[in-house]
Structures are given as C-alpha cells and as structure tokens.
C-alpha cells in the first residue's frame, strides 16, 4: 500500500507528559515519548491505548488556539510551554453514543502551535461533506418539552465550536416548519435542515422538503406515477420527542450530542420514503411505521393524552391491548425480489450496509403493479381478520424495542416489511408483543406473517370488491401461495381502525403504499457495528524517524 505523506510531527506537552504528535493525510495521533520506542505500545485501535491515541481527521470537530493563564505558566522542568492549541474530536463512549473530547498540546514555540492549527484546519477544509450553514427547526412542545433547552445547551455550543452557522426557528404551531420549508425558506443558503423534536416533527420536515423539491423540479407529487426527485439537502435529527424511533434506528441511540456530532462530521445516510395514497391521491409520506389496527388505535387514543408526554403511549398501549380489537380487510402486495433478502434473514442493516448499497430500483416495479391493476398475477393477496397490519420501512428500533418491529429491515433498500398479525387470543398477542422487547423472534408465531414488499394496498372489508366479499363468506382466503381455507371462525369488529403514519393519524383506511428508494438523506451513518479500526498501521505515523521540532 502506498504510504501517505506525513504532514507534521512534533514533540509537544500534553498535561505533564511529553508526547509525540503526528498528522498525516487522514489521521492525527499522539503517544507518550518514553513509550514511543516500544513498538508493542503502538496504536492498535482507533482510539489507541492509555498512552496513545489516534483520531481520524474526519472525526476532528475543530482546532483552536488555547489562551488561558494556566497555559502561560505551563512548565516541564525549567522549560516553559506558554503556547497551546486544543483539538476537539469525536470519541465513542457506550452504546453508539458519541461525545466531544478535547486534547490540548502545549509548546514553547508559538509559530509551531500556529502551524499545527493551520495544517489541521487545511485538512478539515478538504472535507467537503461537512455542513457550514444549517436551518434548524425546534418543536418546543415535543416529548418532555425540552427541545429548546436541549438545542441551546447541548447542540448550539458544538455547532459554534465547529464554525457552523445556524438559522433557528422555534415553531409556533403544528405544521409551521412544514409550511415554511414548502414555500418560504431560502434553501440555497443552507447545507442541511435540522429537526429538534420527535418523529412527528421529523415528518413535518420530511413533507416540507420533499414537497419543495418536487415543486422546484416541476414534479406533481400527486400523480401516482410521478418519479419523485430526491432531496439534495440532508436532514439532521436532534432527538427531543417521545419515541424518536427515526433517530434511534439510524444512529443507534437517542442522544442529542451524538446526533449533533454526526451532523458536524457530515455523515450521510440515504433513506427510503413510502408514498401513501388514497384513491390515487397522495395522503402522506412515511419513513418508519405505518400501522393499522393495534398501533393505529394506540396512536389515536394517545393523541387525547398528549398532556401526559411520552407516558401517554404506555397508558394507551395498555388500553388498546385490553380492547383486543381486530379488523377485516384485504392486503395485496408486490413482493420484493431476492436481491434484498427477506425479513427473517438475520442480516442487520448497519453502517455501510451492502444490501442498501445495491440500491434496487423500485420505479420499474411500481409501473408493473399499476399495469396489473386488480389482477393477482405476481401479487400476494391476503384477506382476513387482523389485529395489526404494520409496514416497517426501517427496523423501527427505539428504546421500548431495541431490535425494533422488524429487526432486519433496511434503511435504504427500496422495500418495506409488511407484518400481518392475524386474529389470535389476547395471550398470544401479548406473547408476540413481549418478543419486541427481548431477543426472541416476534415473527415465529402461527398467526404472524411477514413479507418484504415494494408496494402494498389495503382495503377494509366494506370497501372490498364484491367478489372478495363473496369469498370471505365461503370461508376462502387467498394468500401469496394461492387460495386456502380460513380457520378463523370468531367474529370481528366491522368498524375501521386508522392508519398511524410515523405517529400521525391518516383520515382513510383504504390506502396504496409504494416505496421510493433513497428519496432523502440524513446526517447519520447507520448503526455502527463495532469500534472501527484504522485501516493502516498507525505506527507508520511515526516511522521512519520524524522531523521532530
Ligand atoms: C407488553 C410490552 C409491549 C411492548 C411493545 C413494544 C413495541 C414497540 C414498537 C414500537 C415501534 C415504534 C415505531 C415508531 C413510531 C413513532 O413514529 C411514533 C411517533 O413517535 P413520536 O412522534 O416521537 O412520539 N410512536 C409511536 O407510534 C408510539 C408507539 C408506542 C408503542 C408502545
Ligand atoms: N409549536 C408547536 N405547537 C404545537 N404543535 C407543534 C408545534 N411544533 C410542532 N408541532 C407538532 O407536534 C407534534 C408532535 O411533535 P414531536 O416533536 O414529534 O413530539 P412527540 O414525539 O412528543 O410526538 C407534531 O405533529 C408536530 O407537527
Ligand atoms: Ca427499507
């Protein structure tokens, strides 16, 4: 492998220890000089050892001159070290959580300090994926109503340190952010949009940005066949809501500082968006959970309890569970091809996911479905009585369910996992729900089916074509593998449930859904597998002998 040219290497003081500090094109490293001759104390991982440290330049937040009285008095033996610079960088703590650490290096030589600052800044300026200017929307009433405080105390200081300018809008009503993005915001000025709030607030930003992008490109998003234009601006999520599932499933934790750092380093995570239509008219977009039956009822009930904050979901969850309703209807769907795996293949979507990188084009398939219209050829058609119909376009992992509704769903593969929970006993449904909170397989029940699909459609029973109703009266059901006899004999509520769509309630039960592959991008990188290693041996930072200053 070709060696990177070394840019700078110096002996400096860190605390009361002399360290050797080196910067090449991609890595900053430092280690104690008394150990520098012992190769065994080399740099074995990204964060190094107790006596050594390596930081990829792409994870440096900022570098600045350090000016305080302590610095001026800094001494080792009789030598004064009155000049210093501080590097702020990303360090990993636990459970995908990041924090911003500082390291200060002292020197007797002012010119040397300035040289270090200049060279690091030059390296940072080469990182063109970093945002310089952001448009920030804060929902002051999301979650525990801490959005404004979280932004001001935890996020704004980091943005300032990274020299990112931010135009901040604290929303004054629901849909304020959506409407502002749709028509007013001067988006040319910004490198990204940041949402401080929960999944509902994210949904506002999503709708504003997708609509604005289509308008700017002359695309009529209400045409079911419209080829939507991907949004150029990335979206950052600072979690300050109740569930924050979109943040959790794309970062691995709901922590404002971690999210701010992903924004600062300019991470990119493409993401699928579902178009949800009723009678060929666009209702909404969705990126996480579209749920009918259990989750729709739960969300509807919880909206009346908003004053309770995030606890509303627990109360409404118990109430909805006890009511144990089921709903009849027909689900038809276009299965995804084998290239994107299946919902039980145990292939987790992680940072740099290969399945998502093989971005399957969903547009051709979309046209196929509309051409087939009501024919069942190539489609799965399932009619029955359901406690829940869920479509998870991503894992929907969140603190309540760390693996999520569909643990092996992918963020950007152009598909959604359709989960059908048929009528079953209360006890069985409880067993199914409990499996969302542990490692057991929630799909391993006779009353649960799961399909990876590109499109699906749902019709509640009273809107089904007569022929399907006739079939239901004769006890026949069609499945993906053909007709079969129904074993369901218990009666079912004829009323509709509602669809909840990323936490918002839809006004129609009959919907058509199609996945728009990678329509948006987030400031995230997907959940990191484990601590990543530096690809080259970091010891090469110091070999051969440095030009030590
Ligand atoms: C007996 C134990 C039962 C435990 C069941 C746990 C199953 C949890 C699955 C949760 C999936 C959540 C999917 C995300 C939905 C959010 O978009 C939505 C709105 O979020 P926000 O705007 O931040 O409030 N939240 C919900 O739908 C709440 C689901 C709560 C389920 C208990
Ligand atoms: N200033 C505001 N006043 C009232 N509602 C708002 C305001 N700003 C945003 N909203 C709405 O609040 C709802 C919930 O927001 P969200 O941030 O997702 O919190 P939570 O996760 O607690 O539901 C969203 O539907 C959003 O449209
Ligand atoms: Ca997906």
From TrEMBL:
InterPro entries (UniProt xref): ATP-NAD_kinase_N (IPR017438), CERK_C (IPR045363), CERK_PH (IPR057465), Diacylglycerol_kinase_cat_dom (IPR001206), Lipid_Phosphate_FormReg (IPR050187), NAD/diacylglycerol_kinase_sf (IPR016064)
A GO CC term assigned to this protein in UniProt: membrane
Gene Ontology molecular-function annotations: ceramide kinase activity
Domain DAGKc: 129-280
A Pfam family: CERK_C
GO BP terms: ceramide metabolic process
Listed name of the protein: DAGKc domain-containing protein
